[in-house]
Design a protein that fits this description.
18 strands; globular; six-stranded parallel sheet; single chain; binds thiamine diphosphate; alpha/beta; binds magnesium ion
């Protein structure tokens, strides 16, 4: 007899889902019973950290890690990070434990009567199978939905007494299924798009996370070079789609209407690839684009295309379309854009400017380092200072939900053992995912955590100025000693208040083969 548990592990094997992230409760133990040796279980101490590790892992590998969480309370605790997972389009499959079937209606302890409803606005799919016989098929459905474009999280809740039930003769047919997600622009649709681009005199590219997620960075470079077009990164970027060292790299677009229109004015065609149009944050209203500018948009996410307020969109796979466009469009000669040079900030006696931190990181980190960033007021400093060249060099909370960065760095390092992960995390952000330090220590992932301790929610200071709000409480963050916190979780840590100290600390950190944390004293500029 094959049990539902055995068939489920076989299904997970079929999909390469042998790495699981979790935090167990009593409802999950029958699923984890006799845990197979070819599977790895990465434990987190808090469901937000568990999901963030899995999200980071999924973004690097492009596969679906299984996330095993406790019923309502556990799954609910993960939902802040789940908001990011939706926007990062990570195909994470969350499996929540449920009480025994017969007793759920009585609302006994740790039963979840509305289990399928709980994460529903955020997940692409959420279900609790109506019968044990439908468990394997429902999990397969969740895996397939999570992995179809646009990818995203899916959720299943399974009563714990289902796992030891027998499967039937049809279960292997479900386990063995393969699903291919394949659509592309037809030749005539591609010709129409190429003709739009050929007709423009001064096209500009705006690139988004789908480019990095589909590993089509090199084709984005080929297209930019063929058109002599500057390449901007779309606002609020969760990934880095274009080498920041390339002469055509123009910079990061600001997350507001007027700022984008100003920077793109003078271009008769804006070509947005793999990004929403646009993910604004700050309120600076105006016309979406200057008169005389038009926009074409290529994305593989129908929802993004439907909600865009302007521009003509092509729903198409980003990698295939970029590669074919780079072959097809007529080459243009345009002068390389002049990029504004950043004047680095000056340190104080006992605190560094964030520019110094990022400059020293760039200098001492390996060239192919992976940057995970959750430091909200220092985005301009980071993007103006750090050099990133290859695919998969940058990850950040896709929906701006704090608690992603620190644990995601652990998942990203686990998925990427051949590259070094540097996690630059604000002192405010760090606390939302701090338990990730324990997982880093236990897994011995050699992440270099740099906490930018400016003793404040710097982004709130900036927003207070922008919104003309005064005396808002709870902006300062005094009294958190990250060296001691890290040591408590088992991660060796040291303090750096000057550039010289930071250099020494980072040199030691990069020489270590385990995780390290540096508390870098900075000030909010
Ligand atoms: C889960 C969550 N809660 C609250 C916020 C609101 N928020 C945005 S930025 C920020 C401050 C982050 O401070 P820090 O990490 O120290 O970076 P700094 O702004 O100082 O550079 C907060 C609380 C959020 N984005 N996500
Ligand atoms: Mg701060």
């Amino acid at each position: 007899m094959t049990t539902i548990r055995e068939a489920t592990y076989e299904l997970l094997r079929q999909h390469g889902m042998t790495t699981m992230f979790g935090n167990p409760g009593s409802n999950e133990l029958t699923f984890l019973n006799e845990f197979p040796e070819d599977f790895r279980y990465v434990m987190g101490l808090h469901e937000g950290s568990v999901l963030a590790m899995a999200d980071g892992y999924a973004q690097v590998t492009g596969t679906s890690p299984l996330v095993s969480l406790h019923s309502a309370a556990g799954t609910g605790t993960s939902m802040g990070v789940l908001a990011n997972t939706v926007v990062s389009k990570s195909p994470v499959v969350v499996l929540s434990g449920q009480q025994v079937r017969d007793m759920v209606g009585q609302e006994i302890m740790v039963a979840s009567t509305e289990a399928a409803q709980l994460p529903k606005p955020l997940t692409k799919f959420s279900a609790e199978p109506l019968s044990p016989k439908d468990v394997v098929r429902t999990i397969a459905q969740a895996i397939h939905i999570a992995n179809m474009h646009p990818k995203g999280p899916a959720h299943i809740s399974v009563p714990y007494d289902d796992w030891d039930q027998p499967t039937d003769e049809n279960t292997p047919l479900t386990v063995q299924r393969r699903v291919v997600d394949a659509t592309a622009l037809s030749e005539s649709q591609l010709a129409e798009l190429a003709a739009r681009i050929d007709a423009a005199t001064s096209p500009v590219l705006v690139l988004g996370p789908e480019v990095d997620a589909t590993h089509s960075n090199a084709d984005a470079v080929r297209l930019a070079e063929r058109l002599g077009a500057p390449a901007w990164i779309a606002p609020s970027p969760p990934r880095c789609p274009f080498p920041t060292t390339h002469p055509l790299f123009a910079g990061l677009l600001p997350p507001n209407v007027a700022g984008i229109a100003e920077l793109l004015s003078g271009h008769d065609l804006v070509i947005v690839v793999g990004a929403p149009v646009f993910r604004y944050h700050h309120d600076r209203p105006g016309r979406y684009l200057a008169e005389g500018s038009n926009l074409v948009h290529i994305s593989q996410d129908p929802a993004e295309i439907a909600r865009a307020p302007f521009g003509d969109s092509f729903l198409a796979p980003v990698a295939d379309t970029l590669a074919r466009l780079a072959e097809t469009v007529v080459p243009k000669e345009n002068p390389a854009p002049a990029r504004a040079e950043r004047t680095p900030g000056v340190d104080r006696e006992d605190r560094m400017h964030p520019d110094t931190v990022f400059r020293v990181i760039t200098e001492l980190a390996p060239d192919d380092a992976v940057h995970v960033v959750e430091s909200t007021s220092t985005a301009d400093s980071f993007w103006g200072t750090v050099r990133m060249e290859s695919q998969g060099s940058y990850y950040s909370a896709a929906a701006g939900g704090l608690g992603f960065g620190l644990p995601a760095a652990v998942g990203i390092q686990l998925a990427n053992p051949q590259r070094r992960v540097v996690a630059s995390i604000g002192d405010g952000s760090a606390n939302f995912g701090i338990t990730g330090l324990w997982s880093a220590a236990q897994q011995n992932t050699p992440v270099v955590f740099v906490i930018l301790r400016n003793d404040t929610y710097g982004a709130m200071v900036n927003f207070n100025k922008r919104l003309k709000t005064n005396n808002t409480p709870s902006v300062d963050l005094p009294g958190i000693d990250f060296v001691q916190v890290a040591a408590g979780y088992g991660v060796p840590a040291e303090l750096a208040t000057t550039e010289a100290e930071l250099r020494l600390a980072l040199t030691r950190a990069f020489a270590s083969d385990g995780p390290t944390l540096i508390e870098a004293r900075t000030f909010h500029d």
